[in-house]
Specification:
The chain is α+β, with helices and mostly antiparallel strands. It has a single domain (5-131, 146-156), classed as Sandwich (Jelly Rolls). Helix content is 17%, strand content 30%. The protein is built from 3 helices and 11 strands. A hairpin with a 5-residue loop joins β6 and β7. The two termini are 21 Å apart.
């Protein structure tokens, strides 16, 4: 199993991000080439590792947003996307089929561009509450700063399960 790329993002005044936990990106975590139903493959992986709560199939919103009361996993089943993580001063990453990003609570994300066939599988670990916070609403940020660090750390990695990188990287942070 590969080691994910880690990213820390600072509060940019609009998006608080997570001051304690890194975002993890697993490039080519799954080889989906030639797979007839890549969506189901990612869903099964997330379910097996207890990250299938509130699971959805869709894309990524085209505006800066984050979740202050839950961590999120994004798996690219089909297509490609250019996504800005961390708010306006964050990082722009190119994601493709098979890539999986794990966002700690508070991490901003925004789709800047995508192929017409983009399908993203999203999910959450147990023990959180979904909320949608916008980078353009100061009241969201003020509330989020109080809740982000209270979100429980999951017991498993959505890709590697109990022995996955998240369990080590997020426990030591």
């Amino acid at each position: 199993m590969q080691t994910p790329i880690t990213y820390f993002f600072e509060d940019d005044g609009a998006v608080p991000n997570n001051p304690a936990l890194p975002m993890l990106v697993n490039k080519a975590a799954l080889d989906l080439a030639g797979t007839h139903d890549p969506e189901s493959g990612i869903e099964k992986l997330f379910d097996a590792n207890d990250w299938g709560h509130g699971r959805w199939r869709n894309g990524i919103f085209p505006y800066a947003h984050y979740h202050s009361m839950i961590h999120e996993v994004l798996g690219i089943a089909r297509g490609t996307a250019k996504v800005r993580f961390g708010g306006d001063r964050g990082e722009v990453l190119d994601l493709a089929s098979g890539d999986i990003a794990v966002l700690p609570a508070g991490t901003g994300h925004q789709r800047l561009a995508a192929s017409a066939d983009l399908v993203v599988i999203g999910g959450y670990p147990p023990g959180g509450t979904y909320d949608l916070c916008r980078g353009d609403r100061p009241s969201d940020r003020d509330r989020a700063i109080k809740t982000i660090l209270k979100v429980p750390r999951p017991g498993t990695d959505p890709v590697g399960g109990k022995d996955g990188a998240l369990t080590t990287l997020w426990r030591s942070a």
